[in-house]
Request: fold
Amino acid sequence: MQRPYLKHLAAALALCLPLMAFGAERQVVDIAVKGMTCPLCAYGLEKSLRKADEVDHAAASLKDQNVRIELKPGTQPDIARYKQLIHDAGFTPGEAKVSREETK
Amino acid sequence: MKPRPGCIATAALLCAAAGAANAAPLTFNTALPISKDEWILREQFVYMKSTDDPSPMNRRMEVSGLMSVLGYGVTRDFAVFAVLPYADKRLSMNVGGADATRSQSGFGDAMFMGRYTAFEANATGHTFRIAPFLGVKAPTGDDHASDRLGRLPPMLQPGSGSWDWQGGAVASFQSLDWGWDVQLAHQRNGEANSFRAGAVSRLDLSVQRRLWPGTLGEGVPSFLYGGLEANLIHVAKDRVNGADDPNSGGTTLFLTPTVQYVTRKWVVEAGIQIPVSQHLNGSALRNDYILTTGFRLNLGIRIIWLLYEIERWATSKTHNGLTG
Reply:
């Protein structure tokens, strides 16, 4: 009598997993970048920022002269590390802004 | 002693020697930064033709070369580069009323260079840098190649047999719309086989302008640059058995229109160096033009190894040639 009950519970949990992921919150860091002037440089910067384990995605903007760093859900930003990685990539980091957004 | 039109070509080839990260100059690119831990590969196909011979021998020199440049960012400010040229050299001339051609192909001398960014000023949308560099050319190429007429002259040898040193400094300004680079470089050559190639001094200037897109969009769009470069190159006379060769060396000014397409991961580029002024000594062979085209990649080490294997396989199928 107990076995069918556990089976139904496991199936329900499995079905709910995608719903649990939907709506999870993650942190996003926008950092101003000085000295970024071409597409290849921007790609080098994005690659450099992905060295941080908690970084899910990094996208530079030449027009806005900044980089947007999206963190994995449940992780905390390490602003000092990101600024060091920007510096290592050959640029000068500026002001950083942290915000939260829902993952889709 | 024969004049050495190869001097200018060698200088042009060797100065295609450094990093790649931007709308860098085509004819010299010791200019731009490589990020820390970043690998960059540049391949350039160079074709040089010299047919303006003031002597009655009607000499024609053609050089086709493939320059492989690998750069690595050791630290934020210090980058190292290795350059390995592969060239096919062909000299035709009129001897006793008949045409004769001597040719040779093979890997040339490898060059290793370090560059340190000593000054940097970054601001929103532009950057300015000054970097001294120092390089050494090792005698890795064959300098004893011969054909059925005997040992080939130095201008046709793949390698020089000597240790050569190059130093200089480069300053670069780059904004989102345009950029310029200026380089001052000097190469001092060692002696081998009783021959010392003339020292090369050069002043290079490059200006690049973004042609497309006219207005920047979101993210990281690809750029099309148009550019103009000027190379003022002075080559001292060669020394043969301790004496100056009067038919070698001189001063040349090249102008080079360029076009470059720069994306996030790769660059394709082309340009043609046109000698607008040539003051060469004696009967030194005058240059017609140097055509340069190639690509640059921002790579991982596995891809670099794969490309090395492909190049090694391709060059193993080449052979030395002599036609009369």
Summary: Residues 6-323 of chain B form a domain with the Porin fold (CATH 2.40.160.40). DSSP finds two helices and 21 strands in chain B.
